[in-house]
Design a protein that fits this description.
The structure is a homodimer. Chain A contains 17 helices and 24 strands. The first copy, chain A, is of the alpha/beta class. Chain A folds into three domains: 188 residues, Alpha-Beta Barrel (TIM Barrel), CATH 3.20.20; 78 residues, no CATH class; 329 residues, 2,3-Dihydroxybiphenyl 1,2-Dioxygenase, domain 1, CATH 3.10.180. In chain A, strand 4, helix 5 and strand 5 form a beta-alpha-beta unit. Chain A is globular. Chain A starts with 6 loop residues before the first strand and ends with a helix. The interface between A and B is large, with 141 and 141 residues. Chains A, B: Catalyzes the conversion of 3-dehydroshikimate to protocatechuate (3,4-dihydroxybenzoate), a common intermediate of quinate and shikimate degradation pathways. Chains A, B: Pathway: Aromatic compound metabolism; 3,4-dihydroxybenzoate biosynthesis. Chains A, B: InterPro entries: DSD, Glyas_Bleomycin-R_OHBP_Dase, Glyas_Fos-R_dOase_dom, IolE/XylAMocC-like, VOC_core, Xyl_isomerase-like_sf, Xyl_isomerase-like_TIM-brl.
């Protein structure tokens, strides 16, 4: 009993790849770590490799976490959950750790039944026992039914299994009760783990939201169209006045911020005008030119320097693209595969040690390019000067707030106004049986302090609808993701931003952007592209072990995906398969995706794995 | 009725000085602005000047805001409030605006009485009417009694004055009810103003706090000493494990972050050990060397280059300091005034176009410098190599996480170990009757992503107690401020950080740091220093007009303060008077403060005014 209290740290506390985190923890003198699941899944180290690395560093692995949504579920899900647990126990044996954290359930199917929770946790502990594993049950402060430590303790007490105990987390307890009593009476044999975190005062959510995170209309979650409609229905004729307290806007150059603000009101008026039958009170509303139908991506445009050009064209060739056109007056190439068009502009600008390859332009098919361009101007998009010769097509070009070119065009084979007429055919015909169908989406990265502005820009100028916003923990920080799409689903943009950024300790992972091509045969595409020598991004084995625990997939399919480095996601509407190339030049890559059913996601759940793999590949290439 | 809806923007939405905001709003095509009080108070433009500037830019001033804590107060406060309102009406007449925003009260003395609220608002409108001013009453979502638009509307309806109406703010309404009904029935004559803001979903405060803002123990608000004490009382012998989800730590170099984490546990153990009687369960707790009493600041140390040296020494002279000592072996000067010591190290490093003057070292008086240094090392402060000749005193020197030197020393006139023995007397005696008493506090600036780390460092190494944390809206972004002090109040540190920073659009205002000297005669000090030619920072007239509205101050005192550029704050314990110099070199300045009664603040409320004034002075100097 005279040993000093051991000090451990969850890997989730620190930034970096798992190896970075372990080294930092050991150097700071920690005795051990909790391994956070995502850190393991993203790692190219095997579980045994992680165990050895920790041993070399003098670190114990004190816990594996988190295991979610286990208890108080209907019988069928309980069986699936036990299968999932067995897979994680396998993993824990390989890691050499004996404690698993189980968080109180958030599952919508869960039942408010302590007896059932105790019974199922008892069953879990019974499976864990022969392997020498302990289960530590923790009440999340927002757990559906179990959200106090007392409640988790009652259930553990009732389940009465020697391998089942509680984990206390100061955050979940003190955020609800600053001075809890009764903890001292817990049986220490049943108190398996203690997690510590401090936090700012948990008071007044709305006040904090109001003072720090207000947004201009169209950048957040409020239905302001309906609201303004109601106010105008009174006969109100005063101004629409913006009052927004926002940490980011407060420190941004007010020039662009004011334009962003004005765009939000113009876009709001557009929404109000379109909202319902026109009444007299809507007389004052100005309505931008309605958006003509946008039927798809005409092309995506990359700026590439000499070094990256080779890398990009080699990769495009391996993906089955053919260099079909050469611009009449500029050093610009057109590459085609099916209906996918990629335009490469030669640039001499150097943006990174890896060479320059920048997603520089987005070209959309518009039924009426003039009107689209007019709408963009009305919504305060700066118009870029077009430098076209008399014989060339006029591209209606604007710029996004961060300087990407936007072209509105109408592609008709023989139409003399088509952008295609600017290219002389190289004579090489496009490939015969394309495996790629179209550009599925384009993913752009934004600095965190331009995210809301860019989102509103794309949303209003292209008349897109925001889809679910998500956040995920990437190796070097949280990443926020917002997808936008138009009614037909033909124009899809996925936006990413680090939620915060100042420290630049991981410069090998700059904000990546990509062009995603759709296919109807992901396996065939992956195989043929691999065989053609495409630089396909290598995904860690741990990812597939985790997939196997999470989903019951056809073993043959899983094995093919593992071999071909195909990532997987699923929701209630369908499935999503995708694979990526390595990073090319500064920060772009290509992706191939297959949507099965009506899946509307973009594989955001896999982004941390992809980012970690890109980082790994860069480290590998650098050495 | 065919006029387009007017579009206006509150100046609080944008960053910068008032003039920056007005220009940006006009350029973006806004018709008018709401003037936010702080923007006016911080401005060197007079109200008439602001009116003219808006007119030149084609902007109307649609509202002045906010006026707080007015309604439903006891009779005596009601009279004070009417006086305050009259001052603001004077101001509004000068500005040429006719609508004042009144937010529903948060005042602790307010009474839950709608009749009284209506009666007092009626009285306010009655005062406003002859001046042609309207009062727009707005329910804050967190208003004490009035926090829904329906409630504000009932009170306005009941008060029944033509110059009293409601202001609707989408944030306050939609954050509580996403689809409000009934708004359309409001009498448009009574609907004076509409403010629009969007926001992220206002759900699950604890979840957001947990996933983004957890902190290491000692960096937040939780009483973790008590908590850990309770857990150890069970007989728990498992590890203390940190589990912290934090946006900043997730993107910080994990090396220093892990050290910060370890320091938090060491400091926590220190707290637990000191917490109560030692029980058997505390056996495992390791306790750092207890902190010897720190009895005050020995000196503050500036690194200055040639250009700044002149500026600094001229200013010190004007503040009554005398160059009393010259270091035996280094280009280091000692300047003294009373018990205030400032050490200047000559450096050749250039940190800004304004020259280099950096707060580089903090020296504290310790009863046992060895033990203090030992404690610092145990708490993982890097020890700096001391380059002292054999005949010189050994300074026990460590470094803060951001590289400031920390010296622990014991100043005794004839003690051969005193740091003073390193200096040869210049022969010039210190001034006879010092007006400055001591170093009251030292204010340091931290990058936002090192704030928690530095706070914990100062707190644990110097054994300080955190005082209230505040946030204020400075011209170029929100600033967070945290004061720390020891038991005796002899060591006080005020920390500042921009809550966020990427955009650098206002480089004239780098993170300022200062040394604050205490006096018992602020008026005398200000007068003599002004007469000696000290570069005293000029405070805008608007600030004093606002002081006059907020407090009933002796007119003669107010007039002296205005003339001498003295700032003022007050709380329940006493008063705080202070004035500052201009910025010297890169980012430092001196301050002189007088505390009356037991005031424990640092003038944080005045920091935005001070920052705006420093910016103004720099702009002025640059042209």
């Amino acid at each position: 009993m005279n040993n000093p209290v051991r000090k451990t740290i969850a890997t989730v506390c620190l930034s970096g790849m798992l190896d970075d985190k372990l080294r930092a923890s050991a150097a700071a003198g920690f005795d051990g770590v909790e391994i956070f699941e995502n850190d393991l899944v993203n790692s190219h180290l095997s579980p045994e490799g992680i165990r050895d690395r920790c041993a070399d560093l003098g670190l114990s692995i004190d816990m594996y976490q988190p295991f979610r949504d286990f208890e108080a579920l209907p019988a069928e899900q309980h069986e699936t959950n036990l299968r999932r647990a067995e897979r994680k126990f396998d993993l824990m044996e390989r890691l050499g750790t004996d404690t698993m954290l189980v968080c109180s359930t958030l599952a919508p199917q869960a039942i408010d039944d302590d007896d059932l929770a105790a019974e199922q946790l008892h069953a879990l502990a019974t499976r864990a026992a022969p392997r020498g594993i302990r289960v530590a049950y923790e009440a999340l402060a927002w757990g559906r039914f179990v959200n106090t430590w007392e409640h988790s303790w009652r259930i553990v007490h009732q389940a009465d299994h020697p391998k089942l105990g509680v984990c206390l987390d100061s955050f979940h307890i003190l955020s609800k009760d600053p001075r809890p009593t009764g903890i001292a009476t817990i049986d220490p044999e049943k108190l398996f783990f203690l997690q510590l975190a401090d936090a700012p005062p948990p008071d007044m959510n709305l006040l904090r939201l109001s003072r720090h995170h207000r947004l201009f209309p169209g950048q957040g979650s409020f239905d302001l169209t309906h609201f303004v409609d109601q106010v105008l229905a009174t006969g109100y004729t005063g101004p629409l006045s913006l009052e927004v307290f926002n940490d980011v806007f407060r420190q941004s150059d007010p020039g662009p911020a004011a334009l962003d603000a004005m765009r939000s009101l113009l876009s709001l008026e557009d929404g109000v005008a379109a909202h319902g039958p026109r009444g007299p009170y809507r007389v004052g509303i100005t309505e931008p030119t309605p958006s003509p139908e946008l039927s798809g991506w005409a092309f995506a445009e990359l700026d590439v320097d000499e070094r990256s050009a080779t890398e990009i064209t080699t990769t495009l060739s391996a993906l089955g693209f053919v260099h079909t056109g050469q611009h009449r007056s500029k050093p610009v190439q057109l590459w085609q595969h099916g209906d996918c068009n990629v335009v490469l502009n030669r640039t001499s600008e150097k943006t990174s040690e890896w060479g320059t390859a920048e997603l520089a332009g987005l070209a959309v098919e518009s039924r009426a390019p003039d009107s689209s361009a007019q709408r963009a101007r009305e919504l305060l998009a700066p118009r870029l000067p077009t430098q076209h010769a008399d014989t060339e097509a006029e591209l209606h070009t604007s710029a996004t707030p961060d300087g990407k070119r936007i072209h509105f065009c109408r592609t008709e084979g023989d139409d003399p106004t088509s952008w295609r007429t600017d290219f002389t055919a190289t004579g090489t015909p496009p490939a015969g049986a394309p495996v790629l169908v179209d550009i599925d989406h384009i993913a752009v990265a934004e600095p965190f302090d331009h995210f809301a502005e860019s989102m509103l820009f794309y949303r209003s100028v292209f008349d897109l609808r925001p889809q679910a916003e998500t956040e995920y923990a990437a190796p070097f920080g949280l990443v926020r993701s917002q997808a936008l799409g138009n009614r037909s689903g033909r124009i899809r943009i996925a936006m990413h931003a680090a939620v915060l950024r100042r420290g630049e300790w991981a410069p090998e992972v700059p904000d990546p952007e990509h062009i995603s091509f759709g296919t109807d045969d992901i396996i065939g595409a992956a195989r043929s592209m691999r065989d053609s020598g495409a630089p396909i991004l290598r995904i860690p084995e741990n990812y597939y072990d985790d997939l196997d625990a999470r989903y019951v997939l056809d073993p043959e399919l899983l094995s093919e995906m593992r071999m071909l480095n195909i990532l997987y996601d699923r929701d209630d509407h369908g499935e999503f398969f995708h694979f990526c190339t390595d990073l090319l030049g500064s920060r772009v890559f290509f992706e191939v995706v297959q949507r099965v059913g009506d899946h509307r996601g973009y594989g955001a759940a896999n982004t941390p794995v992809r980012m970690a793999a890109h980082r790994q590949a860069r480290l590998h290439r650098a050495t």
